[in-house]
Amino acid sequence: MEKQISQRYSLLQPILPVVNGMMYLGKDLSLNREVILHLMENDDPAFKQAYIRRLRDVASFSDNRFLHILDMGVDTQGVFAVLKIFGGQPLIQMLRQHAWSTSEILGLLFALGKGMQDAMEAGIQGYSVLADNLWVSGEGQLKVINYWEKGEPRARGAAGLCRLLAQLISRSELMDGDGEAVERVVRRFSTDLPAAQQAVLLDLIREVRLEQGTLASFVLGLQRLLDLPRSAPFDSFEAVRTTQAVPEIQEDEEEYEEEDEAATRRVHRVYTDEAKPKNKMLRLGIILACLVVVMGGLVVWVNGKFVRKEVSPAPPAAGEAGTDTHNARNPGASRNGQEHQALRAGGHRRRRSDRSPEFGGTHAGRGGEESD
After folding, report:
1. Are 9 and 26 in contact (CB under 8 A)?
2. What pLDDT shows up at residue 280?
3. pLDDT, tens digit (0-9, with 9 covering 90-100), for 216-226
């Protein structure tokens, strides 16, 4: 009799052993469809509750490069997750028999890497991407089986993709060895690539090993490598080698430039808006100052004109004018003339006094005669 879980799913056959459990091919009795049942056998209630929380955290994520979670629950046998099936089989079961070329493998890794980037945006990361945690669909696409549990550091992210590449091209599990061993395996089994293209691929792996490359830079490097034709000149591959190492930095610089330009435009608008009222006030002040200067000059001009009219002397008589002109030309003659006029004036007064009886002219004459 077939085992059942939660009175809805029956376990048809085991597919792949997992840590603390087993992955089964099962059947959904209510919908009459085949599913994958991921069963974790553990009687600890705390473990079951924690595991259910992990499943719920990723249950809403749906991507064709991941096996979608259809259902989950707790049974007497443990915690189970029901996954959607896409045909095909686990990658680990066909690892030694596949016929993919290195270029085809790079294409599979690129598609898987794009899915990993999408999952990262949804907050899902840290899972293993090695052959024992991947499913190959009927269309030959790689899909992640368990993405709610953490994998080893060397099995996840860009480092996991490099190790998966070594597994696929060497057709072996290759679980041991460090990053240098992975690089040696890739160099040995990727001889079907052009020499320049192989050099670019090795550079990508080396950067990840030295922790100079990220998942994004590795995926971008694969994309540029795949976009180049196999007969491309060496300069084209060299361009990929020199540009793929810093794609994120270049993207960040472009974002910073756009932000700087936008900030500059905002600042310019702010200063322009602030300067508008200031410019208006400045222009108004200049106009008022000009008006004050003009009005002040007009007042000064009018007052000066009236003052000149009030202090202007009367024109001299004709005789005086002539005398003044003559004196100005001959200062000596002027003094002589003045003395002469004084003498004449004195003589005139004496003659008048001699003739006039009012001044005693007769008595004076007589007294003179007596004296004589």
Report:
1. yes
2. 64
3. 999 999 999 98
